[in-house]
Request: fold
Amino acid sequence: MVFIKRALVAGILAGGALIAGTASSANAACTDQVCVYEGRGGGGTVAGFTTADNNFSNNRFQDGSGVNDRISSISATSGCDPIFYTDSFWRGDSQTVWSDGRTYNAVYDNRYSSFRFSLTSCH
Ligand SMILES: [Ca+2]
Reply:
C-alpha cells in the first residue's frame, strides 16, 4: 500500500513537471484571465495576470524579458473588462479591452505600464 502511494505521488510530480516545462516555452498558451503578448495578434512571448497591477516594471514575460512598455496585444476572460494605461498607477492614455477571449492589438503599442478593471463593464 505504501509503495502504491509513492508511485502515485511520483506520477503526479512527473505530470506537474511536464506541464511546467510546456508552460515555460515562449509560445505556450496563457491560462490566466488576463494575458498580454509581446507581439501583435497574440504573437511572441506572453505573460498572465490573476489580479490588477499598478506598475509593470517588475513583471516578466515567459521568456524572462520585461513587460513594461512592450505589450502589443491583450486577451481577457476576466468577466470585467481590463483597462490598460500608458503610465503606472492607472494614469495616462488608456484602452479598455473586451473580456470576450479574443485578442486585441494595443492601441498604444509598446506603451502600457499598468492595468485595472472597469467595474461598470462586468458581464
Ligand atoms: Ca511589443
